[in-house]
Amino acid sequence: MKTDRYKVAIGVILCWTLTLISCKKEEKIVQKGIYNGPLSELHGINMAYTDSAKIMVKMSTETQLTLQNEDKVYPKEVRIFFFDKLGNNTTTLRGDSARFIRSKNLYHIMGRVLVNNQIKNETLQTDEMFWSPDTKKVYTDKPVDIKTPEQVLHGVGMDSNQDFTDYTLRRVTGVLSVKNLPQ
């Protein structure tokens, strides 16, 4: 009888062991990939660059994405306002989108880029422009149209100070005098 009890006890232990082993959940091994998306996403951006507590440049845009390399992407319209030393808005630059390249401290404005100099009543239109806050220069290698009160200038490539008061067209492709046009 004693042996029968041992046999029953061993049988029960074996049954429980087999039950526990067979009910064990199978774990899936999931490999985690490297995340390459933005580190942050901000909305309603209004930034100001100051010099001696005076606003020199303001930038506004709807969305800013900060990437892994600390570059910033502005996928929606960007507006940059340049101010003189008295605080007057002298020039406005706008583009459909932009990117800040941190390693070069350079803004790359893309899409339909428009620059409006309120002081000289001149406008510029191009597809791409770069702005360097360090050198306070804007430039492009793309075709440019500049409208002044007297003429329309066409060229490929342009260099200017950031408030667009002193610019140079690299390759002028045409000049049209506005004074002599019939209205």
UniProtKB/TrEMBL annotation:
InterPro entries: LipoPS_assembly_LptC-rel (IPR010664), LptC (IPR026265). Transmembrane segments: none annotated. Pfam families: LptC. This is LPS export ABC transporter periplasmic protein LptC. The lineage of its organism: Bacteria, Pseudomonadati, Bacteroidota, Cytophagia, Cytophagales.
